[in-house]
């Protein structure tokens, strides 16, 4: 780029990063990362043979990934030399970032979610120009699986310990016969995590997306969790109450009618019951330039969450960047009096709020 042209340099770097992100998608979907994590260093020919893919593409991808710093390479990375050629592999950090479903550093699903929006760019242009939106169903399995797989390690590995660290919440969940709802459960990783952490509770997962509910049922069955029920229903109709605790994990900002949902949730509560909303930790006001987390939230909002919400007529159009005052307004309009932050920190880029 030109001399003293920092914006041009940044836009060029952004374009390169976009191409590298799409190459991550290829490696994720073709199983190349997983094969390298399972086997170790491989030549492109070996990688292609083991994954039933094309060697020429595998070679170009391996070299590109090494050039980007994602894969390690032996022989100094010199291709075309003698012998079988260089071997490519993943170091421990690469395994965690690209393949380990238990790691909170897993980020390949993040790229999968972004790719789902990229496929819909023509539809997004039309929505931005003429109104309407792009629904979750249009975004498809890349979006469903991307969000679910990105959140899974946080729910499985981190959530139980964090809940145990909030005494009144832990006590309510641990009470024999406690009734718990997980509204907007998606693939049900949060529902299953709650049920396993509190086996004496009855946990009901509710989601409006039929394919997600079916997948959640399969996941719960595969893990032998019996104190779970998965229900296909809109959030405005919270079945199976009264509930002692209702969770909404990273979903309220997506809902086209958040006040109606919170009103239904409030009516489903038992005496003394309360609600926990986990949503993105958006800053209380716009800051420019923003940090990387706030920029990521706006990225999700412009490409995925806001278009999905606006695909429903009469939507509130919240978007991913749901600031505290917005959540408080929704809660008060739904009949809640108190909205307080729970002492759960360092949980990704999310914030936990309690509604009473």
UniProtKB/TrEMBL annotation:
What lineage, starting at the top, does this entry show? Bacteria, Bacillati, Actinomycetota, Actinomycetes, Micrococcales
**Domain (Methyltransferase): residue spans on this chain:** 177-287
Alphabetized InterPro entries for the sequence: Methyltranfer_dom, SAM-binding_MTase, SAM-dependent_MTases_sf
Q: What keywords does the record list, in alphabetical order?
A: Methyltransferase, Transferase
Q: Output the CDD domains linked to this UniProt entry.
A: AdoMet_MTases (cd02440)
Q: What is this protein called?
A: SAM-dependent methyltransferase
Q: Name one GO molecular function term.
A: methyltransferase activity
Source organism (scientific name) = Isoptericola halotolerans
- Is the keyword Mitochondrion in the record? no
């Amino acid at each position: 780029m030109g001399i003293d042209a920092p914006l041009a340099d940044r836009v060029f770097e952004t374009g390169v990063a976009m191409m590298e992100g799409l190459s991550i998608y290829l490696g994720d979907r073709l199983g190349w990362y997983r094969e390298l994590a399972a086997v170790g260093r491989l030549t492109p020919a070996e990688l292609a043979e083991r994954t039933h893919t094309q060697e020429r593409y595998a070679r170009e991808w391996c070299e590109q990934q090494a050039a980007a710093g994602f894969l390690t390479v032996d022989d100094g990375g010199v291709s075309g030399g003698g012998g079988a050629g260089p071997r490519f592999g993943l170091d421990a950090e690469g395994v965690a970032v690209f393949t380990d479903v238990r790691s909170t550093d897993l980020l390949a699903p993040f790229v999968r979610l972004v790719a789902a929006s990229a496929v819909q760019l023509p539809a997004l242009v039309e929505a931005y120009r003429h109104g309407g939106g792009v629904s979750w169903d249009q975004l498809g399995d890349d979006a469903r699986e991307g969000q679910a797989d990105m959140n899974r390690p946080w729910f499985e590995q981190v959530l139980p310990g964090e809940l145990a660290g909030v005494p009144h919440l832990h006590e309510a969940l641990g009470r024999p016969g406690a009734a718990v709802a997980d509204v907007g459960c998606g693939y049900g990783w949060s529902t299953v995590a709650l049920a396993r952490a509190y086996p004496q509770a009855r946990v009901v997962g509710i989601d409006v997306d039929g394919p997600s509910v079916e997948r959640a049922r399969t996941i719960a069955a595969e893990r032998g969790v019996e104190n779970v029920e998965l229900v296909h229903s809109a959030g405005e109709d919270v079945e199976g109450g009264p509930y002692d605790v209702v969770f909404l994990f990273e979903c309220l900002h997506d809902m086209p009618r958040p006040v109606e949902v919170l009103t239904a949730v409030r009516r489903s509560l038992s005496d003394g019951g309360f609600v926990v909303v986990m949503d993105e930790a958006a800053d209380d006001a716009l800051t420019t330039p923003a940090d990387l987390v706030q920029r990521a939230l706006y990225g999700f909002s412009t490409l995925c969450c806001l278009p999905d919400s606006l695909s429903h007529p009469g939507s509130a159009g919240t978007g991913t960047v749901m600031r505290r005052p917005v959540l408080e307004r929704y809660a008060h309009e739904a009949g809640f009096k108190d909205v307080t932050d729970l002492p759960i920190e360092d949980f990704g880029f999310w914030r936990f709020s309690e509604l009473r």
